[in-house]
Amino acid sequence: MPEQSIEMQLSSALTDGRSQGISDEISNVVFTLDDLRVFYGDYQAIRGVSLTIAKNEITAFIGPSGCGKSTLLRSFNRMNDLIPGARVEGLLAYHGTDVYGPDVDPIEVRRRIGMVFQKPNVFPKSIYDNVAYGPRVNHIKGNMDDLVEECLTKAALWDEVKDDLKKSAYALSGGQQQRLVIARCIAVRPEVILMDEPCASLDPIATSKIEELMRQLAVEYTIVIVTHNMQQAARVSDRTAFFTAELDEAGVRHGRLIEYGPTRQIFSAPQDKRTEDYISGRFG
Amino acid sequence: MSRPQIAVSAAGGLGSLQQTRSRVGEKLIRAVLVAAAAVSILTTFGIVISVVVPTIEFFSEVSVTDFLFGTVWTPLFADGQFGVLPLVTGTLVITAIAVVVALPLGLGAAVYLSEYASDRSRRVLKPTLELLAGIPTVVFGFFALEFVTQMLLVRIFPDIDIFNALSAGLVMGVMIIPTIASLSEDAMAAVPSGLRDGSYALGSTKRQTAMKVVIPAALSGIVAAFVLGISRAIGETMIVTIAAGLEPNLSLNPLQGMQTMTSYIAAAGSGDLSTGSIEYKSIFAVGFLLFVMTFLMNMVSIRLVRRYRQAYQ
Protein backbone atom coordinates (compact mmCIF):
# COMPACT_ATOMS: atom_id res chain seq x y z
CA MET A 1 0.00 0.00 0.00
CA PRO A 2 2.59 2.66 0.87
CA GLU A 3 4.09 2.21 -2.61
CA GLN A 4 0.88 3.27 -4.30
CA SER A 5 -0.08 6.84 -4.90
CA ILE A 6 -3.25 8.16 -3.29
CA GLU A 7 -4.91 8.19 -6.72
CA MET A 8 -4.12 4.52 -7.29
CA GLN A 9 -5.36 3.53 -3.85
CA LEU A 10 -8.58 5.40 -4.41
CA SER A 11 -9.15 3.95 -7.84
CA SER A 12 -8.68 0.41 -6.58
CA ALA A 13 -11.01 1.22 -3.69
CA LEU A 14 -13.55 2.46 -6.24
CA THR A 15 -13.23 -0.71 -8.29
CA ASP A 16 -13.91 -2.78 -5.16
CA GLY A 17 -16.63 -0.38 -4.12
CA ARG A 18 -20.32 -0.41 -4.76
CA SER A 19 -20.93 2.89 -6.46
CA GLN A 20 -21.13 1.53 -10.01
CA GLY A 21 -24.52 2.07 -11.53
CA ILE A 22 -25.52 4.78 -9.06
CA SER A 23 -27.26 7.50 -11.00
CA ASP A 24 -27.51 11.21 -10.29
CA GLU A 25 -31.23 10.89 -9.78
CA ILE A 26 -32.54 9.82 -6.37
CA SER A 27 -35.95 8.22 -6.70
CA ASN A 28 -36.55 6.92 -3.18
CA VAL A 29 -35.81 9.78 -0.81
CA VAL A 30 -35.40 9.32 2.97
CA PHE A 31 -34.03 12.72 3.97
CA THR A 32 -34.38 16.08 2.31
CA LEU A 33 -32.18 18.90 3.56
CA ASP A 34 -32.92 22.40 2.36
CA ASP A 35 -30.69 25.26 3.44
CA LEU A 36 -29.99 23.50 6.75
CA ARG A 37 -27.89 25.58 9.15
CA VAL A 38 -26.59 24.50 12.56
CA PHE A 39 -25.64 26.96 15.29
CA TYR A 40 -23.91 26.68 18.65
CA GLY A 41 -25.16 29.77 20.42
CA ASP A 42 -24.34 32.66 18.10
CA TYR A 43 -21.74 30.68 16.19
CA GLN A 44 -22.88 29.20 12.91
CA ALA A 45 -21.10 25.87 12.53
CA ILE A 46 -22.58 24.96 9.14
CA ARG A 47 -23.70 27.14 6.25
CA GLY A 48 -26.88 26.18 4.43
CA VAL A 49 -26.72 22.54 3.28
CA SER A 50 -29.13 21.21 0.67
CA LEU A 51 -29.06 17.55 -0.34
CA THR A 52 -31.17 14.40 -0.41
CA ILE A 53 -30.34 11.00 1.07
CA ALA A 54 -31.50 7.89 -0.83
CA LYS A 55 -33.11 4.85 0.74
CA ASN A 56 -31.00 1.69 1.15
CA GLU A 57 -27.89 3.47 0.03
CA ILE A 58 -24.72 4.29 1.94
CA THR A 59 -24.02 8.00 1.91
CA ALA A 60 -20.60 9.18 3.06
CA PHE A 61 -19.77 12.62 4.46
CA ILE A 62 -16.10 13.41 3.99
CA GLY A 63 -13.96 16.47 4.59
CA PRO A 64 -11.24 17.89 6.82
CA SER A 65 -11.58 18.22 10.60
CA GLY A 66 -13.85 21.03 11.71
CA CYS A 67 -15.92 21.09 8.52
CA GLY A 68 -19.08 20.30 10.45
CA LYS A 69 -19.80 16.85 9.04
CA SER A 70 -20.28 15.24 12.46
CA THR A 71 -22.36 18.19 13.63
CA LEU A 72 -24.54 17.77 10.55
CA LEU A 73 -24.89 14.04 11.17
CA ARG A 74 -25.95 14.61 14.78
CA SER A 75 -28.71 16.93 13.61
CA PHE A 76 -30.34 14.06 11.64
CA ASN A 77 -31.54 12.34 14.83
CA ARG A 78 -31.64 15.45 17.01
CA MET A 79 -28.65 14.44 19.12
CA ASN A 80 -27.61 18.09 18.98
CA ASP A 81 -30.62 18.84 21.18
CA LEU A 82 -28.57 17.47 24.07
CA ILE A 83 -25.89 20.15 23.64
CA PRO A 84 -26.89 23.35 25.42
CA GLY A 85 -27.17 26.23 22.94
CA ALA A 86 -27.25 24.06 19.81
CA ARG A 87 -29.91 25.15 17.30
CA VAL A 88 -30.96 24.12 13.82
CA GLU A 89 -32.51 26.33 11.13
CA GLY A 90 -33.76 25.43 7.67
CA LEU A 91 -35.43 22.18 6.67
CA LEU A 92 -34.46 18.63 7.59
CA ALA A 93 -37.30 16.40 6.41
CA TYR A 94 -37.56 12.67 7.08
CA HIS A 95 -40.00 11.11 4.60
CA GLY A 96 -41.47 14.56 4.14
CA THR A 97 -41.91 15.32 7.85
CA ASP A 98 -39.86 18.15 9.36
CA VAL A 99 -37.71 16.47 12.03
CA TYR A 100 -37.63 19.80 13.89
CA GLY A 101 -41.38 20.39 13.57
CA PRO A 102 -43.31 21.50 16.65
CA ASP A 103 -45.16 18.18 17.19
CA VAL A 104 -42.13 15.95 16.64
CA ASP A 105 -40.87 13.94 19.61
CA PRO A 106 -37.06 13.66 19.52
CA ILE A 107 -37.28 10.28 21.29
CA GLU A 108 -39.43 8.91 18.46
CA VAL A 109 -36.99 10.37 15.94
CA ARG A 110 -34.04 8.61 17.59
CA ARG A 111 -35.92 5.32 17.64
CA ARG A 112 -36.32 5.41 13.84
CA ILE A 113 -32.89 6.88 13.17
CA GLY A 114 -30.23 4.97 15.08
CA MET A 115 -26.65 6.04 15.65
CA VAL A 116 -23.22 4.42 16.03
CA PHE A 117 -20.47 6.53 17.54
CA GLN A 118 -16.75 6.96 17.06
CA LYS A 119 -15.81 5.24 20.32
CA PRO A 120 -17.65 1.94 20.88
CA ASN A 121 -19.86 3.06 23.76
CA VAL A 122 -21.10 -0.28 25.07
CA PHE A 123 -22.95 -0.08 28.37
CA PRO A 124 -21.40 -1.59 31.51
CA LYS A 125 -23.80 -4.52 31.24
CA SER A 126 -23.76 -8.02 29.80
CA ILE A 127 -23.64 -8.57 26.03
CA TYR A 128 -27.26 -9.72 26.14
CA ASP A 129 -28.44 -6.71 28.15
CA ASN A 130 -26.67 -4.32 25.80
CA VAL A 131 -28.69 -5.62 22.85
CA ALA A 132 -31.90 -5.85 24.90
CA TYR A 133 -31.54 -2.30 26.26
CA GLY A 134 -33.20 -0.47 23.36
CA PRO A 135 -36.18 -2.85 23.03
CA ARG A 136 -36.72 -2.69 26.80
CA VAL A 137 -36.73 1.09 27.09
CA ASN A 138 -39.02 1.27 24.08
CA HIS A 139 -41.33 -1.46 25.44
CA ILE A 140 -40.98 -3.59 22.31
CA LYS A 141 -42.91 -6.83 22.81
CA GLY A 142 -41.83 -10.24 21.62
CA ASN A 143 -39.29 -12.92 22.41
CA MET A 144 -36.19 -11.10 23.61
CA ASP A 145 -33.89 -14.14 23.19
CA ASP A 146 -34.83 -14.41 19.53
CA LEU A 147 -34.41 -10.69 18.99
CA VAL A 148 -30.98 -10.67 20.63
CA GLU A 149 -29.86 -13.59 18.47
CA GLU A 150 -31.24 -12.02 15.32
CA CYS A 151 -29.51 -8.68 15.93
CA LEU A 152 -26.18 -10.22 16.92
CA THR A 153 -26.35 -12.40 13.79
CA LYS A 154 -27.05 -9.42 11.58
CA ALA A 155 -24.13 -7.60 13.20
CA ALA A 156 -21.86 -10.59 12.38
CA LEU A 157 -21.11 -11.13 16.06
CA TRP A 158 -23.35 -14.05 17.06
CA ASP A 159 -20.85 -16.85 16.38
CA GLU A 160 -18.19 -15.12 18.47
CA VAL A 161 -20.36 -14.43 21.53
CA LYS A 162 -23.22 -16.96 21.57
CA ASP A 163 -21.72 -18.85 24.53
CA ASP A 164 -20.84 -15.69 26.47
CA LEU A 165 -24.05 -13.68 26.35
CA LYS A 166 -23.99 -13.14 30.13
CA LYS A 167 -20.42 -11.87 30.09
CA SER A 168 -19.65 -8.18 30.47
CA ALA A 169 -19.52 -6.36 27.16
CA TYR A 170 -16.26 -4.80 28.36
CA ALA A 171 -14.59 -8.19 27.87
CA LEU A 172 -14.93 -7.83 24.08
CA SER A 173 -12.29 -6.35 21.78
CA GLY A 174 -12.78 -2.88 20.30
CA GLY A 175 -13.99 -4.24 16.96
CA GLN A 176 -16.39 -6.66 18.66
CA GLN A 177 -17.67 -3.84 20.85
CA GLN A 178 -18.39 -1.73 17.79
CA ARG A 179 -20.33 -4.60 16.20
CA LEU A 180 -22.19 -5.02 19.50
CA VAL A 181 -23.13 -1.34 19.34
CA ILE A 182 -24.43 -1.94 15.79
CA ALA A 183 -26.46 -4.94 17.04
CA ARG A 184 -27.80 -2.78 19.88
CA CYS A 185 -28.73 -0.09 17.37
CA ILE A 186 -30.67 -2.38 15.02
CA ALA A 187 -32.51 -4.03 17.94
CA VAL A 188 -34.93 -1.10 18.08
CA ARG A 189 -35.65 -1.70 14.36
CA PRO A 190 -34.61 1.68 12.98
CA GLU A 191 -34.86 2.55 9.31
CA VAL A 192 -31.69 4.62 9.22
CA ILE A 193 -28.30 4.05 10.85
CA LEU A 194 -26.06 7.09 11.28
CA MET A 195 -22.39 6.25 11.76
CA ASP A 196 -20.01 8.88 13.11
CA GLU A 197 -16.50 7.69 12.17
CA PRO A 198 -17.31 4.15 13.31
CA CYS A 199 -13.85 2.80 12.52
CA ALA A 200 -11.76 5.69 13.84
CA SER A 201 -10.63 3.73 16.92
CA LEU A 202 -10.29 0.32 15.24
CA ASP A 203 -7.41 -1.56 13.66
CA PRO A 204 -7.46 -2.39 9.89
CA ILE A 205 -8.83 -5.93 10.33
CA ALA A 206 -11.68 -4.80 12.58
CA THR A 207 -12.27 -1.93 10.16
CA SER A 208 -12.65 -4.22 7.17
CA LYS A 209 -15.15 -6.35 9.12
CA ILE A 210 -17.25 -3.30 9.90
CA GLU A 211 -17.09 -2.18 6.27
CA GLU A 212 -18.26 -5.56 5.06
CA LEU A 213 -21.04 -5.46 7.64
CA MET A 214 -22.12 -2.02 6.40
CA ARG A 215 -22.57 -3.37 2.86
CA GLN A 216 -24.74 -6.21 4.18
CA LEU A 217 -26.78 -3.86 6.34
CA ALA A 218 -27.46 -1.49 3.44
CA VAL A 219 -29.83 -4.10 1.97
CA GLU A 220 -32.19 -3.44 4.84
CA TYR A 221 -31.17 -0.05 6.21
CA THR A 222 -30.27 3.39 4.97
CA ILE A 223 -26.80 4.32 6.19
CA VAL A 224 -25.14 7.72 6.50
CA ILE A 225 -21.49 7.60 7.53
CA VAL A 226 -19.03 10.30 8.48
CA THR A 227 -15.45 9.28 7.78
CA HIS A 228 -11.99 10.76 7.69
CA ASN A 229 -10.81 7.89 5.58
CA MET A 230 -11.27 8.59 1.86
CA GLN A 231 -10.55 5.00 0.84
CA GLN A 232 -13.29 3.92 3.18
CA ALA A 233 -15.73 6.32 1.56
CA ALA A 234 -14.66 5.06 -1.86
CA ARG A 235 -14.98 1.42 -0.82
CA VAL A 236 -18.32 1.42 0.95
CA SER A 237 -20.42 4.36 -0.12
CA ASP A 238 -22.84 4.89 -3.00
CA ARG A 239 -22.85 8.64 -2.72
CA THR A 240 -20.37 11.06 -1.21
CA ALA A 241 -20.77 14.58 0.08
CA PHE A 242 -17.60 16.63 0.42
CA PHE A 243 -17.54 19.35 3.07
CA THR A 244 -14.86 21.83 3.90
CA ALA A 245 -14.19 24.52 6.47
CA GLU A 246 -13.75 28.05 5.18
CA LEU A 247 -13.35 31.51 6.61
CA ASP A 248 -16.14 33.90 5.78
CA GLU A 249 -15.82 37.68 5.15
CA ALA A 250 -15.68 38.34 8.89
CA GLY A 251 -12.92 35.76 9.38
CA VAL A 252 -15.20 33.23 11.14
CA ARG A 253 -14.72 29.55 10.35
CA HIS A 254 -17.72 27.59 9.20
CA GLY A 255 -18.43 24.33 7.46
CA ARG A 256 -20.10 24.09 4.07
CA LEU A 257 -21.06 21.50 1.51
CA ILE A 258 -18.90 21.74 -1.61
CA GLU A 259 -19.94 18.86 -3.76
CA TYR A 260 -22.36 15.95 -3.61
CA GLY A 261 -22.87 13.11 -6.05
CA PRO A 262 -22.34 9.43 -6.80
CA THR A 263 -19.14 8.34 -5.09
CA ARG A 264 -17.55 7.28 -8.37
CA GLN A 265 -18.05 10.70 -9.82
CA ILE A 266 -16.80 12.56 -6.73
CA PHE A 267 -13.58 10.58 -6.69
CA SER A 268 -12.89 10.17 -10.41
CA ALA A 269 -14.29 13.38 -11.86
CA PRO A 270 -14.78 16.00 -9.16
CA GLN A 271 -16.42 19.17 -10.44
CA ASP A 272 -14.91 21.48 -7.85
CA LYS A 273 -11.22 22.31 -7.50
CA ARG A 274 -11.46 22.07 -3.68
CA THR A 275 -12.81 18.53 -3.87
CA GLU A 276 -10.08 17.55 -6.27
CA ASP A 277 -7.40 19.05 -4.04
CA TYR A 278 -8.74 17.24 -1.01
CA ILE A 279 -9.07 13.78 -2.53
CA SER A 280 -5.72 14.00 -4.24
CA GLY A 281 -4.14 14.77 -0.88
CA ARG A 282 -3.01 18.29 -1.67
CA PHE A 283 -5.04 19.64 1.22
CA GLY A 284 -6.52 18.37 4.47
CA MET B 1 32.05 8.27 48.09
CA SER B 2 35.32 6.80 49.13
CA ARG B 3 35.66 4.57 46.08
CA PRO B 4 38.89 5.02 44.15
CA GLN B 5 38.53 7.23 41.13
CA ILE B 6 38.83 5.30 37.90
CA ALA B 7 40.91 7.04 35.35
CA VAL B 8 38.11 7.66 32.89
CA SER B 9 38.24 11.40 32.91
CA ALA B 10 41.86 11.36 32.05
CA ALA B 11 41.33 9.05 29.10
CA GLY B 12 38.07 10.28 27.56
CA GLY B 13 37.23 13.60 29.12
CA LEU B 14 33.73 12.35 30.00
CA GLY B 15 34.02 13.40 33.62
CA SER B 16 33.08 11.38 36.67
CA LEU B 17 29.69 9.66 36.73
CA GLN B 18 29.76 9.48 40.51
CA GLN B 19 27.57 11.62 42.65
CA THR B 20 29.28 14.92 43.14
CA ARG B 21 26.80 16.76 45.33
CA SER B 22 25.39 15.38 48.57
CA ARG B 23 21.76 16.52 47.83
CA VAL B 24 20.91 17.23 51.46
CA GLY B 25 17.65 18.92 50.51
CA GLU B 26 16.40 15.74 48.84
CA LYS B 27 17.01 13.69 51.98
CA LEU B 28 15.49 16.34 54.20
CA ILE B 29 12.29 16.51 52.16
CA ARG B 30 12.06 12.74 52.21
CA ALA B 31 12.38 12.66 55.99
CA VAL B 32 9.72 15.34 56.43
CA LEU B 33 7.30 13.47 54.13
CA VAL B 34 7.87 10.16 55.90
CA ALA B 35 7.26 11.88 59.24
CA ALA B 36 4.02 13.37 57.93
CA ALA B 37 2.78 9.93 56.90
CA ALA B 38 3.99 8.38 60.14
CA VAL B 39 2.06 10.76 62.39
CA SER B 40 -1.33 9.49 61.30
CA ILE B 41 -0.26 5.84 61.32
CA LEU B 42 1.27 6.13 64.80
CA THR B 43 -1.81 7.98 66.04
CA THR B 44 -4.02 5.15 64.81
CA PHE B 45 -1.84 2.61 66.60
CA GLY B 46 -1.88 4.75 69.74
CA ILE B 47 -5.65 4.94 69.69
CA VAL B 48 -6.03 1.21 69.16
CA ILE B 49 -3.67 0.43 72.06
CA SER B 50 -5.24 2.98 74.41
CA VAL B 51 -8.66 1.50 73.66
CA VAL B 52 -7.70 -2.16 73.67
CA VAL B 53 -5.84 -2.20 77.00
CA PRO B 54 -8.73 -0.89 79.18
CA THR B 55 -11.13 -3.03 77.13
CA ILE B 56 -9.21 -6.18 78.04
CA GLU B 57 -9.24 -5.10 81.69
CA PHE B 58 -12.98 -4.48 81.44
CA PHE B 59 -13.61 -7.99 80.16
CA SER B 60 -11.67 -9.47 83.04
CA GLU B 61 -14.45 -8.17 85.28
CA VAL B 62 -17.50 -8.47 83.00
CA SER B 63 -18.00 -11.51 80.77
CA VAL B 64 -18.18 -10.95 77.02
CA THR B 65 -21.56 -12.72 76.87
CA ASP B 66 -23.07 -10.52 79.59
CA PHE B 67 -21.77 -7.47 77.74
CA LEU B 68 -22.91 -8.40 74.24
CA PHE B 69 -26.26 -9.97 75.08
CA GLY B 70 -27.25 -8.28 78.33
CA THR B 71 -30.34 -6.11 78.04
CA VAL B 72 -29.76 -3.70 80.91
CA TRP B 73 -27.16 -0.93 80.86
CA THR B 74 -26.82 0.69 84.29
CA PRO B 75 -23.07 1.23 84.77
CA LEU B 76 -23.49 4.05 87.28
CA PHE B 77 -25.75 2.14 89.67
CA ALA B 78 -24.25 0.66 92.79
CA ASP B 79 -24.93 -2.82 91.44
CA GLY B 80 -24.26 -1.84 87.82
CA GLN B 81 -25.17 -4.01 84.85
CA PHE B 82 -23.25 -3.90 81.63
CA GLY B 83 -25.55 -5.27 78.91
CA VAL B 84 -24.69 -3.17 75.84
CA LEU B 85 -27.74 -4.10 73.72
CA PRO B 86 -29.77 -0.98 74.61
CA LEU B 87 -26.93 1.22 73.35
CA VAL B 88 -26.53 -0.88 70.19
CA THR B 89 -30.24 -0.76 69.36
CA GLY B 90 -30.27 2.98 70.07
CA THR B 91 -27.39 3.46 67.64
CA LEU B 92 -28.94 1.23 64.99
CA VAL B 93 -32.46 2.72 65.23
CA ILE B 94 -31.19 6.28 64.89
CA THR B 95 -28.77 5.34 62.09
CA ALA B 96 -31.55 3.49 60.26
CA ILE B 97 -33.81 6.55 60.40
CA ALA B 98 -30.94 8.70 59.11
CA VAL B 99 -30.27 6.26 56.28
CA VAL B 100 -33.93 6.08 55.27
CA VAL B 101 -33.92 9.89 55.01
CA ALA B 102 -30.51 10.37 53.44
CA LEU B 103 -30.22 7.63 50.81
CA PRO B 104 -33.22 8.55 48.63
CA LEU B 105 -32.78 12.30 49.11
CA GLY B 106 -29.02 12.19 48.60
CA LEU B 107 -29.25 10.01 45.51
CA GLY B 108 -32.14 12.07 44.17
CA ALA B 109 -30.19 15.29 44.63
CA ALA B 110 -27.19 13.70 42.90
CA VAL B 111 -29.26 12.53 39.92
CA TYR B 112 -30.81 15.97 39.60
CA LEU B 113 -27.46 17.76 39.78
CA SER B 114 -25.72 15.38 37.40
CA GLU B 115 -28.43 14.66 34.81
CA TYR B 116 -31.12 17.34 34.94
CA ALA B 117 -29.70 20.61 36.24
CA SER B 118 -28.31 23.15 33.79
CA ASP B 119 -24.64 24.05 34.15
CA ARG B 120 -25.67 27.31 35.72
CA SER B 121 -27.89 25.85 38.44
CA ARG B 122 -25.36 23.12 39.18
CA ARG B 123 -22.67 25.73 39.74
CA VAL B 124 -24.87 27.41 42.33
CA LEU B 125 -26.55 24.38 43.91
CA LYS B 126 -23.63 22.06 44.52
CA PRO B 127 -21.57 24.45 46.68
CA THR B 128 -24.75 25.42 48.53
CA LEU B 129 -25.46 21.79 49.29
CA GLU B 130 -21.89 21.28 50.43
CA LEU B 131 -22.29 24.23 52.81
CA LEU B 132 -24.71 22.03 54.73
CA ALA B 133 -21.78 19.71 55.47
CA GLY B 134 -19.93 22.57 57.12
CA ILE B 135 -22.56 23.30 59.78
CA PRO B 136 -21.27 22.25 63.23
CA THR B 137 -23.10 19.19 64.51
CA VAL B 138 -23.94 20.92 67.78
CA VAL B 139 -26.08 23.32 65.76
CA PHE B 140 -27.83 20.37 64.14
CA GLY B 141 -28.40 18.95 67.63
CA PHE B 142 -30.21 22.01 68.89
CA PHE B 143 -32.12 22.24 65.60
CA ALA B 144 -33.34 18.68 66.22
CA LEU B 145 -34.36 19.39 69.82
CA GLU B 146 -35.77 22.90 69.53
CA PHE B 147 -37.30 22.89 66.07
CA VAL B 148 -37.87 19.36 64.81
CA THR B 149 -39.13 17.93 68.09
CA GLN B 150 -40.88 20.89 69.68
CA MET B 151 -42.28 22.63 66.59
CA LEU B 152 -43.02 19.69 64.28
CA LEU B 153 -43.04 16.26 65.86
CA VAL B 154 -45.10 17.13 68.97
CA ARG B 155 -47.91 18.24 66.68
CA ILE B 156 -47.88 14.96 64.76
CA PHE B 157 -47.18 12.62 67.70
CA PRO B 158 -48.58 14.18 70.90
CA ASP B 159 -47.10 11.41 73.12
CA ILE B 160 -43.56 11.81 71.82
CA ASP B 161 -40.77 12.16 74.38
CA ILE B 162 -38.99 15.52 74.32
CA PHE B 163 -35.77 13.59 73.86
CA ASN B 164 -36.48 11.05 71.12
CA ALA B 165 -34.73 8.95 68.49
CA LEU B 166 -36.89 10.19 65.62
CA SER B 167 -35.78 13.83 65.63
CA ALA B 168 -32.14 12.86 66.08
CA GLY B 169 -32.38 10.36 63.22
CA LEU B 170 -34.17 12.77 60.87
CA VAL B 171 -31.70 15.59 61.45
CA MET B 172 -28.75 13.22 61.23
CA GLY B 173 -30.16 12.11 57.87
CA VAL B 174 -30.28 15.70 56.67
CA MET B 175 -26.73 16.17 57.91
CA ILE B 176 -25.34 13.34 55.76
CA ILE B 177 -27.30 14.23 52.59
CA PRO B 178 -24.50 16.51 51.30
CA THR B 179 -21.90 13.79 51.77
CA ILE B 180 -23.97 11.26 49.85
CA ALA B 181 -25.21 13.70 47.21
CA SER B 182 -21.86 15.30 46.52
CA LEU B 183 -19.86 12.06 46.27
CA SER B 184 -22.57 10.31 44.24
CA GLU B 185 -22.71 13.28 41.89
CA ASP B 186 -18.95 13.08 41.42
CA ALA B 187 -19.30 9.40 40.52
CA MET B 188 -22.10 10.08 38.03
CA ALA B 189 -20.30 13.04 36.47
CA ALA B 190 -17.36 10.70 35.84
CA VAL B 191 -19.52 8.40 33.69
CA PRO B 192 -18.37 8.99 30.08
CA SER B 193 -20.83 11.12 28.12
CA GLY B 194 -20.60 8.55 25.32
CA LEU B 195 -22.71 6.18 27.43
CA ARG B 196 -25.43 8.81 27.75
CA ASP B 197 -25.28 9.52 24.01
CA GLY B 198 -25.60 5.80 23.33
CA SER B 199 -28.67 5.58 25.51
CA TYR B 200 -30.36 8.67 24.07
CA ALA B 201 -29.61 7.50 20.54
CA LEU B 202 -31.67 4.36 21.24
CA GLY B 203 -34.72 6.46 22.06
CA SER B 204 -34.36 6.55 25.86
CA THR B 205 -35.77 9.30 28.01
CA LYS B 206 -33.72 11.22 30.54
CA ARG B 207 -35.15 9.12 33.36
CA GLN B 208 -34.33 5.84 31.62
CA THR B 209 -30.81 7.04 30.86
CA ALA B 210 -30.23 8.08 34.46
CA MET B 211 -31.74 4.97 36.05
CA LYS B 212 -30.54 2.27 33.65
CA VAL B 213 -27.20 3.56 32.41
CA VAL B 214 -25.72 6.32 34.57
CA ILE B 215 -26.54 4.96 38.04
CA PRO B 216 -25.40 1.38 37.25
CA ALA B 217 -22.21 2.70 35.68
CA ALA B 218 -21.49 4.86 38.73
CA LEU B 219 -22.58 2.23 41.25
CA SER B 220 -19.23 1.60 42.90
CA GLY B 221 -18.82 5.31 43.62
CA ILE B 222 -22.39 5.57 44.84
CA VAL B 223 -21.93 2.63 47.22
CA ALA B 224 -18.77 4.28 48.55
CA ALA B 225 -20.72 7.50 49.11
CA PHE B 226 -23.46 5.62 50.97
CA VAL B 227 -20.95 3.88 53.23
CA LEU B 228 -19.17 7.10 54.06
CA GLY B 229 -22.51 8.70 54.92
CA ILE B 230 -23.57 5.77 57.11
CA SER B 231 -20.20 5.73 58.87
CA ARG B 232 -20.65 9.40 59.69
CA ALA B 233 -24.13 8.64 61.04
CA ILE B 234 -22.94 5.79 63.29
CA GLY B 235 -20.08 7.84 64.65
CA GLU B 236 -22.06 11.06 65.06
CA THR B 237 -22.22 12.13 68.71
CA MET B 238 -23.44 15.67 69.25
CA ILE B 239 -26.88 15.42 67.67
CA VAL B 240 -27.79 12.26 69.60
CA THR B 241 -26.39 13.57 72.87
CA ILE B 242 -28.51 16.70 72.63
CA ALA B 243 -31.69 15.45 70.99
CA ALA B 244 -32.08 11.72 71.71
CA GLY B 245 -31.65 11.76 75.46
CA LEU B 246 -29.21 9.92 77.65
CA GLU B 247 -31.40 7.10 78.82
CA PRO B 248 -30.43 3.58 77.76
CA ASN B 249 -33.61 2.11 76.35
CA LEU B 250 -33.97 -1.30 74.72
CA SER B 251 -36.76 -0.39 72.33
CA LEU B 252 -37.46 0.00 68.65
CA ASN B 253 -39.96 2.79 69.20
CA PRO B 254 -38.42 5.94 67.67
CA LEU B 255 -40.76 8.19 69.64
CA GLN B 256 -38.90 7.32 72.83
CA GLY B 257 -35.62 8.65 74.07
CA MET B 258 -32.57 6.46 73.49
CA GLN B 259 -28.91 6.49 74.28
CA THR B 260 -26.44 5.58 71.56
CA MET B 261 -22.97 4.16 71.99
CA THR B 262 -21.42 7.50 71.09
CA SER B 263 -23.60 9.55 73.41
CA TYR B 264 -22.80 7.18 76.30
CA ILE B 265 -19.10 7.67 75.64
CA ALA B 266 -19.50 11.43 75.47
CA ALA B 267 -21.68 11.68 78.57
CA ALA B 268 -19.71 9.24 80.73
CA GLY B 269 -16.37 10.54 79.50
CA SER B 270 -17.21 14.10 80.48
CA GLY B 271 -18.51 13.03 83.90
CA ASP B 272 -16.43 12.51 87.03
CA LEU B 273 -15.73 8.79 86.83
CA SER B 274 -12.61 7.75 88.66
CA THR B 275 -9.85 6.46 86.42
CA GLY B 276 -9.48 2.71 86.65
CA SER B 277 -13.03 2.06 87.85
CA ILE B 278 -15.13 -0.48 86.00
CA GLU B 279 -17.49 2.32 84.86
CA TYR B 280 -14.51 4.15 83.40
CA LYS B 281 -13.32 1.05 81.57
CA SER B 282 -16.80 0.45 80.15
CA ILE B 283 -16.32 3.59 78.03
CA PHE B 284 -13.47 1.87 76.24
CA ALA B 285 -15.35 -1.38 75.83
CA VAL B 286 -18.21 0.47 74.13
CA GLY B 287 -15.75 2.42 72.01
CA PHE B 288 -14.04 -0.79 70.98
CA LEU B 289 -17.36 -2.35 69.93
CA LEU B 290 -18.18 0.77 67.91
CA PHE B 291 -14.81 0.51 66.21
CA VAL B 292 -15.41 -3.14 65.36
CA MET B 293 -18.85 -2.33 63.91
CA THR B 294 -17.65 0.47 61.64
CA PHE B 295 -14.63 -1.58 60.65
CA LEU B 296 -16.84 -4.52 59.60
CA MET B 297 -19.08 -2.19 57.66
CA ASN B 298 -16.15 -0.69 55.80
CA MET B 299 -14.89 -4.18 54.96
CA VAL B 300 -18.27 -5.20 53.58
CA SER B 301 -18.50 -2.05 51.52
CA ILE B 302 -15.02 -2.49 50.08
CA ARG B 303 -16.12 -5.99 49.03
CA LEU B 304 -19.25 -4.57 47.42
CA VAL B 305 -17.35 -1.89 45.55
CA ARG B 306 -14.86 -4.46 44.26
CA ARG B 307 -17.58 -6.81 43.12
CA TYR B 308 -19.32 -4.12 41.08
CA ARG B 309 -16.03 -2.99 39.61
CA GLN B 310 -15.27 -6.52 38.48
CA ALA B 311 -18.68 -6.91 36.94
CA TYR B 312 -18.39 -3.77 34.88
CA GLN B 313 -14.79 -3.50 33.79
Structure notes:
The complex is a heterodimer of chains A (284) and B (313). Chain A has helices spanning 6-16, 69-76, 106-112, 127-137, 144-154, 158-161, 174-186, 204-217, 230-236, 263-268, 273-279; strands at residues 29-40, 43-54, 58-62, 86-94, 97-98, 113-116, 192-196, 222-226, 239-247, 253-262. Chain A has 284 residues and is α/β, with parallel strands linked by helices. Chain A has a single domain (6-279), classed as P-loop containing nucleotide triphosphate hydrolases (Rossmann fold, 3-Layer(aba) Sandwich), CATH 3.40.50.300. In chain A, the strands form two sheets. Chain A has a six-stranded mixed β-sheet with strand order 6-7-8-3-9-10, with helices on both faces. Chain A is globular and about 55 Å long. The mean pLDDT of chain A is 90. In chain B, helix 2 packs across helix 13 and helix 4 (85-116) packs parallel to helix 7 (165-189). Chain B folds into two domains: 8-61; 85-312, MetI-like fold. Chain B is flat. With 313 residues, chain B is an all-alpha fold. Chain B has helices at 8-12, 24-61, 64-69, 85-116, 119-132, 137-156, 165-189, 193-201, 206-217, 219-235, 238-243, 261-269, 278-312. The interface between A and B is medium-sized, with 27 and 23 residues.
Layout of SSEs?
The complex is a heterodimer of chains A (284) and B (313).
Chain A: H1 6-16, E1 29-40, E2 43-54, E3 58-62, H2 69-76, E4 86-94, E5 97-98, H3 106-112, E6 113-116, H4 127-137, H5 144-154, H6 158-161, H7 174-186, E7 192-196, H8 204-217, E8 222-226, H9 230-236, E9 239-247, E10 253-262, H10 263-268, H11 273-279
Parallel strand pairs in A: 3-8, 3-9, 6-7, 7-8
Antiparallel strand pairs in A: 1-2, 1-4, 4-5, 9-10
Helix pairs in contact in A: 1-9, 4-5, 4-7, 5-7, 7-8
Chain B: H1 8-12, H2 24-61, H3 64-69, H4 85-116, H5 119-132, H6 137-156, H7 165-189, H8 193-201, H9 206-217, H10 219-235, H11 238-243, H12 261-269, H13 278-312
